[in-house]
Design brief:
Pfam families: Trep_Strep (PF09605). The chain crosses the membrane at residues 21-40, 46-64, 71-87, 93-113, 120-139, 169-189. 79% of the residues lie in helices and 0% in strands. It has 203 residues and is mostly helical. It has one domain. It is elongated.
């Protein structure tokens, strides 16, 4: 156990940073591919966090298996947040991924990045970062609309979102995001069993 803790507390090496960068790029692509179908539809857009969380679990868990050190996941969240922001997403979407990546880092770190259950929970929490923009939408719809209009979103798209939004949609958004990311993490654990054994990750 002491060796695992010492390994976790060692600083990130250049190799670790390169690995984190590569897997962040892969993760971004998988989240984008999973969520883009929902994002383009103003009625289904609330389920973008679920779509984004459905495919990326194996990539996320493989990153942990490859690096399993503090701050790797946080750095991933910073990079993804910057990418989302510069590509025109609402600032709360970028901030959501940044905050939840840091939270996810500490959750996985609580098990020294060696627990499948905590690593999977970490991924679920990370995936909830995609709800950030929609939370702001429900809290401040007019402010959200003004920001998105400035980012180039059409008024008709926003009008349809506002007509569709209700408490049931909000609950369904969180429920589907949690379910989809949990399924993705489960599949990832099955796919990466050999990688986990090599990294010393246990149930």
């Amino acid at each position: 156990m002491s060796n695992q803790v010492n390994s976790m507390n060692k600083g990130l090496t250049v190799k670790d940073l390169v690995t984190t960068g590569i897997f962040t790029a892969l993760l971004f692509v998988f989240v984008l591919v999973g969520g883009v179908f929902f994002a383009t539809n103003p009625v289904l857009t609330f389920f973008m966090p679920a779509g984004g969380g459905l495919l990326a679990g194996p990539i996320y868990l493989l990153l942990i298996a490859k690096v399993h050190k503090r701050w790797s996941l946080s750095i991933m969240g910073v990079i993804m947040g910057i990418i989302w922001f510069v590509t025109g997403m609402h600032w709360a979407f970028a901030l959501g991924y940044l905050i939840m990546a840091i939270v996810a880092d500490f959750v996985a770190g609580a098990g020294q990045y060696k627990s499948k259950k905590l690593n999977s929970l970490s991924y679920i929490l990370f995936s909830l970062g995609g709800t950030g923009s929609y939370i702001v939408f429900f809290v401040d719809p007019n402010g959200w609309a003004q920001t998105m209009l400035g980012n180039g979103t059409e008024q008709s798209y926003i009008d349809t979102m506002q007509a569709t939004a209700n408490t049931g949609i909000l609950i369904a958004m969180f429920a589907t995001a949690i379910a989809a990311s949990a399924i993705s993490a489960f599949v990832g654990c099955k796919m990466l069993k050999k990688q986990f054994e090599k990294a010393g990750i246990t149930a």
